[in-house]
């Protein structure tokens, strides 16, 4: 169907990496019974449901809000959709990346604003693009060890109003002025101000360790794996086309409308989905490596505002509360590699690792939801999974992992089209997986994502027998 599947090039010539994982045994043992457990002492941890605000391009309808407003709405909407009592929630794990200083523990502040009990503790997690994945798996760990039974996980990102600091020299002067005891001391400090002090300290979507943006890493991966501009645009068009179809057919039931104060029309859907033509995509110039790069604005995820939330509990507790879970949360793993050459290859490492932990293989997965940072990143990971050479040199396997069937891969679109509010995407991926497992009548789903710092996540989800969309 797509040329990138046919063009699995020899990557020995162009790909220089330094990471590896330990050798694994690949004996496949599949239990097709729904109420399986991996050992007799483990709890069945379930995903009840998830919600999210519409994901909007930054600078649009949400631009005058705070991240708090979106986070609060996600938590309030989750409570309304599922109908659990306030006192049932024992803990809240919430993610964010670009932190608003006035609400540094956004999970706690948003929960109070949403009317959750003041006796429910909350903490905020930062793990780049996989922050709300970490919120879910932290909840799983707390439940597994018996600390709590019912936890809300979520995440928010608000790129319309990111924190911008004064320059460091100016900050130093301001701190000194605050401590100055006399007018003379304050005037002396005022006289030392120079024009350069007024240059702001702007945050950047770049790696601290390398100073390089993810877009540059995407271009490097494209060159290393022999990915063409046509392949990248083709994949981006696929993402937008599938997302538009899912939106039109009413599949994106995790979206909860949001009434923005001062705006008459209720925000009810993602606004970044745009189906273009191959000719229109081909006209765009490279965004990062100019003039020869292949990563453009159209085949990259865009800066997005949005929030999400989900309810995690045990199967037994769900039954006692009268709730019907959508899926079992079966397994997860986190990986990390070299943040330069392997920055965006987290899925290629996490997928085989979590499959082995779950005693499954590629063919057992009926639903794939993999974060789309760039078309180049997705195609590089697919080629890595389909490469014997990559498997032998960097996964320490005898042969390639294999490529999933494309009709099972991000069939409702992905981050390229739906949007990517950094810390909210993980919940969307899991919720879409659970909903697709039901809609497409599949048993197992796999969620994977890359993240800043060369990190990544892999998660296995199993449809619950009582699940309903």
TrEMBL record:
It is found in: Mitochondrion. Residues 323-463 form the Thiolase C-terminal domain. Pfam families: Thiolase_C (PF02803), Thiolase_N (PF00108). Residues 45-316 form the Thiolase N-terminal domain. Transmembrane segments: none annotated. Pathway: Lipid metabolism; fatty acid beta-oxidation. The keyword Manganese does not apply. Keywords: Acyltransferase, Fatty acid metabolism, Lipid metabolism, Mitochondrion, Transferase. Its main location: mitochondrion. Its EC number is 2.3.1.16. InterPro entries: Thiolase, Thiolase-like, Thiolase_acyl_enz_int_AS, Thiolase_AS, Thiolase_C, Thiolase_CS, Thiolase_N. The keyword Lipid metabolism applies. NCBIfam families: AcCoA-C-Actrans. Belongs to the thiolase-like superfamily. Thiolase family. This is acetyl-CoA C-acyltransferase. The lineage of its organism: Eukaryota, Metazoa, Ecdysozoa, Arthropoda, Hexapoda.
């Amino acid at each position: 169907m797509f040329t990138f599947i046919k063009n699995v090039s020899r990557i020995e010539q162009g790909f220089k990496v330094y990471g590896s994982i330990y050798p694994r045994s690949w004996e496949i043992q599949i239990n097709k019974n729904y109420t399986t457990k991996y050992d007799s002492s483990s709890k069945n941890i379930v995903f009840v449901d998830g919600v999210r605000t519409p994901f909007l391009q930054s600078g649009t309808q949400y631009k005058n809000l705070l991240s708090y407003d979106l986070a609060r709405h996600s938590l309030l909407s989750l409570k309304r959709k599922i109908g659990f009592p306030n006192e049932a929630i024992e803990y809240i794990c919430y993610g964010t990346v670009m932190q608003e200083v006035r609400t540094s523990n956004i999970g706690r502040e948003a929960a109070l604003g949403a009317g959750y009990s003041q006796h429910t503790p909350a903490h905020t997690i930062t793990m780049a693009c996989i922050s709300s994945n970490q919120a879910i798996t932290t909840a799983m760990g707390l439940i597994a060890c018996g600390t709590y039974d019912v936890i809300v996980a979520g995440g928010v990102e608000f790129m319309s109003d990111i924190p911008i600091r004064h320059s460091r020299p100016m900050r130093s002067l301001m701190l000194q002025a605050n401590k100055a005891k006399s007018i003379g001391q304050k005037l002396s400090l005022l006289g030392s101000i120079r024009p350069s002090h007024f240059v702001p300290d702007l945050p950047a979507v770049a790696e601290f360790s390398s100073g390089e943006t993810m877009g540059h890493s995407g271009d490097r991966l494209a060159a290393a794996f022999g990915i063409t501009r046509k392949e990248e645009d083709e994949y981006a068009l696929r993402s937008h086309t599938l997302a538009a179809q899912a939106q039109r057919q009413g599949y994106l039931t995790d979206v909860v409308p949001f009434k923005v104060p001062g705006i008459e029309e209720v925000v009810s859907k993602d606004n970044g989905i745009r189906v273009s033509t191959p000719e229109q995509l081909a006209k765009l110039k490279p965004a990062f490596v100019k003039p020869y790069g292949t990563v453009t604005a159209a085949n990259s995820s865009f800066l997005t505002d949005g929030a999400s939330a989900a309810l995690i509990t045990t199967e037994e507790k769900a039954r006692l509360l009268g709730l019907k879970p959508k899926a079992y949360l079966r397994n997860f793993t986190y990986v990390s590699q070299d943040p330069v050459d392997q920055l965006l290859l987290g899925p290629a490492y996490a997928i085989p690792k979590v499959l082995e932990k779950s005693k499954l293989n590629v063919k057992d997965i009926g639903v794939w939801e993999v974060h789309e940072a760039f078309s180049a990143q997705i195609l590089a990971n697919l080629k890595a999974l389909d490469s014997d050479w990559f498997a032998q040199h960097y996964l320490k396997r005898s042969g390639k992992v294999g490529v999933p069937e494309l009709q099972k891969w991000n069939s409702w679109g992905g981050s390229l089209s739906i949007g990517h509010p950094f810390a909210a995407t993980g919940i969307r991926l899991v919720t879409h997986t659970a909903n697709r497992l039901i809609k497409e009548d599949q048993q197992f789903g796999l969620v994977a994502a890359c993240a800043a710092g060369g990190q990544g996540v892999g998660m296995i989800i199993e449809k619950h027998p009582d699940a309903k969309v």
